[in-house]
Amino acid sequence: MQFFKNFFSSGKKNYDQLPDEADNLQKQLPVDEQFVVNYKQAGGRFFYPENMDELKLQLKALLKMLKEEKFIALDRGYYHFLKKLKLPVVSGINNKGILIGGCEYLIADEGAILVSSQNILNYRNNELPRKRVFIVTTDQIVKDKREALEKINKKYKDYPSNIQSFSKFSKDQQNDDTSAFWADTSLFLIEK
Q: Does residue 81 carry a pLDDT above 90?
């Protein structure tokens, strides 16, 4: 998907400054572009590393930027992945740090991240650390929640529990006083 390289490097396309017809134009965009527009409007941070070395450098920089010392991995695969990259990681949710892991799907029409018990175990949103990193691939972008749930149904023999989506990623995007729906979230998208 050459689009992501062009979107983040050229600066020529600026979907934040679309006229009033923005909703109609966004619906006509391909799902990957639609996700990027909606995710960024919701306050999410986006990284597009081209290789593992760049991913490691960006993760280190994120630790420094967010003033944290380590990552928290609930998934053993991510724990071992970060150990292999020689990045500081712990496995318990009771630790202070940045939660890191994967997700089920990226929801284009909402700019949301859909997770399940496969990603965050049985923790509710308000029990998770505020600072979160998701490492995902481009093939996880789907049009809407309906498509995501259909794919989850086909993907798992035993349907996962605790399915929830995160769609407000900055304090500015929070439209009520329930802070459980806000998180400082960064997304690392790897082309597949």
A: yes
